[in-house]
């Protein structure tokens, strides 16, 4: 829903509301259960870009809602909460080639889960300030440190995102420069 919309809940949506969704059957059942007549249109991606020209609201998958808010939208209801589960029958699991493929998929899924709530911090630091920066910098393991051609070091480390707003100023105070915060989609150990 657009952030400036008067609708505060699904009950506030008018009959005939235009809804864009990649999941039209699920969306249709959801609105029907609430007695709201909706004009549901199949979306082939980028649903958030369809408001207000093509749709009044969208149904989309989101983990945090951050991308929706960045597009000027807000969440007014949660249709369902889901989780990822891998299920295999015994015959498929007994096949070494299929089991290898399952293990590869599990590696990717677990890597995505491990990356949740984490970011990569990259920075430069002079030789004299390196130890002070390392004392401030939390690290999942040991930070990566590379010598720069012009002197000093490049340092990178995976840290908890919730700490980033206090960590960056502390690193700068310790002598770090050229600080970067980068999103991480997977961490595979």
Question: What attributes characterize this protein structure?
Answer:
D-Maltodextrin-Binding Protein, domain 2; Alpha-Beta Plaits; flat; 3-stranded parallel beta sheet; 3 domains; 4-stranded antiparallel beta sheet; 189 residues; alpha/beta
Could you describe the 3D structure shown?
Belongs to the ATP phosphoribosyltransferase family. Long subfamily. Its cofactor is Mg(2+). GO terms for molecular function: ATP binding; ATP phosphoribosyltransferase activity; magnesium ion binding. Keywords: Amino-acid biosynthesis, ATP-binding, Cytoplasm, Glycosyltransferase, Histidine biosynthesis, Magnesium, Metal-binding, Nucleotide-binding, Transferase. Pathway: Amino-acid biosynthesis; L-histidine biosynthesis; L-histidine from 5-phospho-alpha-D-ribose 1-diphosphate: step 1/9. With 189 residues, this protein is an alpha/beta fold. The protein folds into three domains: 61 residues, 3-Layer(aba) Sandwich (D-Maltodextrin-Binding Protein, domain 2), CATH 3.40.190.10; 32 residues, no CATH class; 66 residues, Alpha-Beta Plaits. 30% of the residues lie in helices and 22% in strands. It has a four-stranded antiparallel beta sheet with strand order 5-6-4-7, with helices on one face. A three-stranded parallel beta sheet has the order 2-1-3, with helices on one face. A hairpin with a 5-residue loop joins strand 5 and strand 6. The longest helix is centred in the middle third of the chain and has 20 residues. It is flat, with a radius of gyration of 23 Å. The two termini are 39 Å apart. The mean pLDDT is 89.
């Amino acid at each position: 829903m657009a952030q400036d919309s008067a609708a505060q809940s699904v009950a506030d949506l008018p009959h005939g509301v235009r809804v864009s969704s990649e999941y039209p059957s699920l969306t249709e059942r959801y609105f029907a259960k609430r007695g709201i007549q909706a004009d549901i249109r199949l979306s082939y991606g980028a649903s958030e870009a369809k408001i207000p020209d093509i749709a009044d609201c969208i149904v989309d998958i989101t983990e945090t809602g951050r991308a929706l808010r960045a597009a000027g939208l807000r969440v007014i209801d949660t249709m369902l909460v889901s989780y990822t589960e891998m299920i295999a029958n015994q015959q498929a699991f007994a096949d070494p080639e299929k089991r290898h493929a399952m293990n590869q998929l599990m590696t990717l899924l677990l890597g995505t889960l491990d990356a949740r709530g984490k970011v990569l911090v990259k920075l430069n630091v002079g030789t004299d300030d390196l130890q002070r920066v390392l004392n401030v910098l939390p690290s999942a393991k040991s930070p990566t440190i590379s010598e720069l051609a012009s002197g000093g070091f490049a340092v990178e480390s995976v840290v908890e995102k919730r700490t980033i707003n206090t960590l960056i100023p502390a690193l700068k105070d310790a002598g770090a420069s050229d600080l970067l915060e980068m999103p991480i989609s997977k961490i595979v150990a």
